[in-house]
Design a protein that fits this description.
With about 230 residues, the chain is an alpha/beta fold. Helices cover about 30% and strands about 15% of the residues. Strand 1 and strand 2 form a beta hairpin. The longest helix is centred in the N-terminal third of the chain and has 18 residues.
Length: about 230
Amino acid sequence: MKVAACILCGHAPLDLVPPSAASCPQCGLLHNLEAVETQYVEGGGQAVPDAKKARWRLINARRRMQLIAPHIDGHELLVDIGCGSGEMLLAAREQLAHVLGFDTNRPLIRHIRESHGLKVVEGYFDSAAIEPTLGARKKIFTLSHVLEHLERPLALIRQIDSAMSRGDLLYIEVPLHTGRSFRLQGYRWNLWAAEHRALYAPQALRFIAATCGFEILASGTRIFARG
């Protein structure tokens, strides 16, 4: 992948990091120079999980909800963008009255609708697809392992921002190149993958918050449950 400037903040030039990355000295984003375009409409490697994998994904989703829970104050709707196989929707339904997913992966959308009866919009995030009666409620937007796939991550954040009202929440989770896994394994880390355009640092997330005028309620790292 050719990268002339940072895909998050636009800074140029980038600092080359052998063997296959370029780092932004301004926001800390680490660009994957070996990333490839991936289409997810018919799966793209994101398959319907077996029962064991689905169980651990649900555990991870519930852990996300535990992080969000201290900030839930009258929120009624969770909108999960890039909802995958739907575990975040299932976890949120245990605490909130309404859930809505957005995704482009047709096999996973069918799985969520047929197996769980939950509402998923097929396509990219569009605030117009949120029913006005739901859009008027206090909302939580979640982006779990989505931004690292995007060529223009800030464009999606701005779309979400325009759909938010005062008091709404946005939860972002991304793989960090500054985390323990990357420090130990480097480019052998399983989340340094061809479909990931970039890995984040806390500095990059702070840049997003400052650019959009978000108040940061909490930040930190967590370890995935993998069985």
